Amino acid sequence: MESALRGSIPTGVKIIETFRFDRAGGFGRLPLHFGRMAETARVLGYPFHEDHARAALAGVVTQPLACPIGGASAPALRCRLTLDAHGKFDLTVAEAGEKPQLWKIAVSEQRLCAANAWLRHKTTQRDTYDQARAALPSGIDEWIFCNERGEVCEGTITSIFLKTGGQMLTPPLSSGLLPGVLRRALIGAGQCREQLLFVADLRAADEIYVGNSLRGLIRAELVGLAT
Questions:
Q1: Residue 61's pLDDT is what?
Q2: Beta-strand (E) ranges in the chain?
Q3: Per-residue pLDDT tens for 155-176?
Q4: 79-120 pLDDT, tens per residue?
């Protein structure tokens, strides 16, 4: 995987981590985010220094006009940390907004290639996801992608989880998907396990959820299927 990616890194590609900050809980799941960023940096050959990353995050609490955290009603923040090929970190912040109660999801006709190593890493090399998200039809909140074998993979910005018979399931990385931080946390806590999933499993699931580290789990309703 290292040689395959290092030989084909487009100029300007950055590694991305997006996470939540709130006054009560601080930065959400930060060790897992740093761990994933460090692993991608290793694979791409980028320098990663956690102390520099933490220094970049210090801006969240030292720029009160851009990042209001001074009062009990201060909003939760969406923090987007990027790392470039020279080891430079950049941070942008915005209000996280309210967590949605329900997302309507549909299965995309577009297929991912399970062998595409870029799918395992959160970087700016994600045109497939960005373009699909920008083209979401009215009434649909998220696309769900499958791979060339028909295995369910993930959404444009979320991991997918099914609950059936009381067990939470999520696709394995071998299907071609990002090792989501929320996904990893749920698996690590014994609340979820990996299993190959297909569109038929989406149809038959007792409950469907999509989610990421920023938003947490969001209840989902399947309203469309690829033809």
A1: 61
A2: 15-22, 26-27, 77-83, 89-95, 102-112, 142-147, 152-155, 159-164, 167-170, 193-194, 207-212, 216-224
A3: 999 999 999 999 999 999 999 9
A4: 999 999 999 999 999 999 999 999 999 999 999 999 999 999
Rounded alpha-carbon distances, angstroms, from residue 96 to 11, 187, 189: 30, 25, 25
- Is the pLDDT confidence value at 69 over 70? no
Q: What is the DSSP letter of 35?
A: H
- Cα–Cα distance list, 4 to 16, 38, 88, 118, 147 (Å): 20, 18, 23, 10, 20
- C-beta separation of 177 from 149 below 8 A: no
- Report d(CA 160, CA 12) in Å as an integer: 29
Q: What confidence score (pLDDT) does residue 23 get?
A: 80
Read off the pTM: 0.90
Question: Do the beta carbons of residue 145 and residue 111 sit within 8 Å?
Answer: yes
Structure letter (DSSP) for residue 101? S
Helix (H) or strand (E) holding 55: helix 50-57
Of 66, 91, 67, whose CA–CA distance to 16 is shortest? Answer: 91
User: Can you tell me which residue has the tokens 């696709």?
Assistant: 171
Nearest CA to 82 among 27, 135, 18?
A: 18
Q: Which residue has the tokens 């469907």?
A: 208
